[in-house]
């Protein structure tokens, strides 16, 4: 089916009307789950991921506590309705889900300042709600925003993007249609230092193309960072505005305060 | 596995966001003047705040290549040369003397047989409760830091250790004070005052800890027969009012009553008042308004005046009206 749809047509447009380096529309919602310490629902085009962060809190399994730092625990679930092609229920032991969780954990371990919270645990729950390519990228971006919302100290934002190559033409932020046909890499970068915390490739890619894609994905990081940063700042500002409204406790004229 | 990666900031073909990516270089840095300004400056992880040579790094920051860098999203605070970033949503950061409300998660009693077998273990494992107090680790309540039945001052006995569950059981709520910290940062609580102890006759509401400010007293009673305990860890206890002279304790210290699990009779009017107050607090918290006894009282009077049902307070438009009423009134009183 996909062979009939052109990945990149002669006019330089992709199947969904984007240019080679154009990213899909991103939306960030920080109000997704009130019960969590921090949460974020992030959408890249039709891919949508909800991440909830709990902690740092007391480790539920005593054997998992580390004495010098917090342990990070990631659990991923892929909703059965999230994909049109692969409509099956994935249990807890599913290999793909476990790998997604393990990748997210490995991405964030060098970024989260865990040594500040000895013997604690940070739980990250990732729910993939819709998939249209770039699930790992969306999960990482959502986890970043959720961790920031939870007030967990991070060295920097982690910005992930997928890059692929079609007949020597590199492109960014692949949809599932493109992901199925093209070799692709997911790159997670930290914009402040330019360091990469994750480079993940599940397909074969010619070594000559690799550097180009890697560089391109590294350049796309700051674009995503800018979006995330704007969202985080706006939320911080909103919270701050609310707090300004009740700033009056220094006025104890009210007679109702009863010392006990 | 961090790979150094230098990115020349030129993304030739424009992204959907149109703007120039290389502009990113600038928006990190607050220049010196900005930093001195006396207003709430918002920052977020990875943003440089100031030079590490001239300033000391505090909480919420780290030092990277001679710069103090924020590690959390929040507001920058400065005391002399110390720069900290305060996150607006985070777990409770305990300080000694804070009043907190917690829930028992675990009772740790080493069985007597085991203790006799292994005398050493007894010493390293003091009898304690673990308390969830919304902090990054569960707090510890030692058997020696609670009031034991039969007088305030007395030695703890073997029998006390065996009946620890008759004082506090898993799931019990209590109000306590932060007494000290352990080496790993966990807090130790105490309830050795008649103000502290087990909670009953009420309802718990949980709010972000930053919304609770330090007040003259965290025990308040509203005129409608409702007592309010504002725990600094963001847990708030709303309960039926208890007359001071009816309080258990003092000389006799009636352990039966202090550690009772039985609620008193609560009449309908008080139940409504409790529900109303807890919904008011939920509304205030949802709009990120700091919670003080004064503002709760004002909101309560507003709600009574409108004669609205307790449950209606949670509806969007009523909640907005409540916030508007309470906060605009504030500005008026401030002017006077």
UniProtKB/TrEMBL annotation, chain A:
Cytoplasm listed as a keyword: yes
Record keyword Ribonucleoprotein present: yes
Domain of life: Eukaryota
Gene Ontology CC terms, in alphabetical order: cytoplasmic exosome (RNase complex); nuclear exosome (RNase complex); nucleolus; ribosome
GO MF terms held by the record: RNA binding
Pfam families recorded: RNase_PH, RNase_PH_C
Subunit structure: Component of the RNA exosome complex. Specifically part of the catalytically inactive RNA exosome core complex (Exo-9) which may associate with the catalytic subunits RRP6 and DIS3 in cytoplasmic- and nuclear-specific RNA exosome complex forms. Exo-9 is formed by a hexameric base ring of RNase PH domain-containing subunits and a cap ring consisting of CSL4, RRP4 and RRP40.
Protein known as: Ribosomal RNA-processing protein 41
Automatic annotation (TrEMBL), chain B:
Domain Exosome complex component N-terminal: 43-79
Major localization class: nucleus
Domain (K Homology): residue spans on this chain: 202-242
Any one GO biological process: nuclear polyadenylation-dependent rRNA catabolic process
Keyword Protein transport: no
GO CC term (a single one): cytoplasmic exosome (RNase complex)
Record key words, sorted: Exonuclease, Exosome, Hydrolase, Nuclease, RNA-binding
Any GO molecular function: exonuclease activity
Pfam family, one: S1_RRP4
Location of this chain's protein in the cell: Nucleus
RRP4 S1 domain: residues covered: 123-179
Domain of life of the source: Eukaryota
Assigned protein family: Belongs to the RRP4 family.
Cross-referenced PANTHER family: EXOSOME COMPLEX COMPONENT RRP4 (PTHR21321:SF4), PNAS-3 RELATED (PTHR21321)
Protein name: Exosome complex exonuclease rrp4
Species of provenance: Russula ochroleuca
Lineage of the species this protein comes from: Eukaryota, Fungi, Dikarya, Basidiomycota, Agaricomycotina
């Amino acid at each position: 089916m996909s062979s009939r749809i052109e990945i990149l047509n002669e006019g330089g447009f992709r199947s969904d009307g984007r240019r080679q380096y154009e990213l899909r529309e991103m939306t960030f919602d920080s109000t997704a789950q009130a019960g969590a310490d921090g949460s974020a629902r992030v959408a890249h085009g039709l891919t949508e991921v909800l991440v909830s962060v709990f902690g740092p809190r007391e480790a539920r399994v005593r054997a998992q506590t580390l004495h010098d730092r917090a342990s990070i625990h990631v659990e991923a679930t892929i909703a059965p309705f999230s994909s049109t092609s692969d409509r099956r229920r994935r249990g807890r032991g599913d290999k793909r889900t476990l790998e997604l969780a393990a990748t997210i954990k490995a991405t964030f371990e060098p970024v989260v300042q865990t040594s500040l919270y000895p013997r604690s645990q940070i739980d990250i729950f990732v729910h993939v709600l819709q998939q249209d390519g770039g699930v790992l990228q969306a999960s990482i971006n959502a986890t970043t925003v959720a961790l920031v919302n939870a007030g967990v100290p991070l060295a920097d934002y982690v910005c992930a993007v997928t890059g692929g190559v079609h007949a020597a033409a590199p492109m960014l932020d692949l949809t599932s249609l493109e992901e199925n046909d093209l070799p692709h890499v997911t790159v997670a970068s930290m914009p402040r230092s330019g360091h990469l915390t994750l480079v993940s490739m599940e397909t074969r890619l010619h070594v000559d193309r690799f550097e180009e894609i890697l560089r391109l994905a590294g350049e796309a990081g700051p674009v995503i960072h800018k979006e995330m940063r704007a969202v985080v700042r706006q939320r911080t500002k909103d919270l701050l505005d609310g707090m300004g409204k009740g700033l009056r406790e220094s006025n104890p004229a009210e007679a109702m305060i009863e010392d006990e | 596995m961090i790979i150094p990666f230098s990115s020349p900031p030129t993304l030739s073909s424009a992204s959907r966001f149109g703007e120039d990516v290389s502009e990113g270089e600038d928006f990190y840095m607050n220049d010196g003047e900005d930093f001195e300004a006396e207003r709430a400056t918002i920052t977020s992880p990875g943003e440089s705040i100031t030079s590490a040579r001239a300033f000391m790094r505090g909480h919420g920051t780290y030092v990277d290549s001679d710069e103090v860098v924020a590690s959390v999203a929040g507001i920058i605070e400065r005391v002399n040369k110390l720069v900290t970033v305060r996150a607006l949503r985070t777990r409770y950061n305990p300080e000694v003397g804070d009043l907190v409300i917690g829930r028992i998660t675990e009772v740790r009693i080493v069985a007597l047989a085991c203790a006799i077998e292994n005398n050493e273990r007894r010493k390293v494992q003091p009898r304690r409760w673990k308390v969830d107090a919304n902090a990054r680790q569960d707090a510890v309540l030692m058997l020696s830091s609670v009031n034991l039945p039969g007088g305030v001052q007395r030695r703890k006995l073997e029998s006390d250790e065996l009946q620890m569950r008759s004082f506090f059981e898993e799931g019990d709520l209590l109000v306590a004070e932060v007494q000290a910290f352990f080496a790993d940062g966990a807090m130790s609580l105490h309830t050795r005052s008649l103000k502290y102890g087990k909670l009953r006759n009420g309802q718990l509401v949980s709010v972000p800890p930053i919304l609770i400010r330090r007040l003259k007293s965290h025990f308040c009673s509203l005129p409608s027969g409702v007592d309010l305990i504002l725990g600094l860890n963001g847990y708030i206890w709303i309960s039926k009012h208890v007359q001071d002279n009816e309080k258990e304790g003092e000389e006799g210290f009636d352990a039966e009553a202090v550690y009772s699990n039985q609620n008193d009779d609560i009449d309908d009017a008080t139940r409504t008042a409790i529900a109303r107050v807890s919904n008011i607090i939920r509304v205030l918290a949802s709009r990120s308004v700091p919670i003080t006894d004064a503002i709760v009282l004002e909101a309560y009077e507003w709600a009574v005046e409108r004669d609205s049902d307790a449950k209606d307070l949670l509806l969007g438009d009523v909640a907005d009206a409540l916030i508007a009423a309470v906060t605009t009134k504030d500005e008026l009183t401030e002017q006077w």
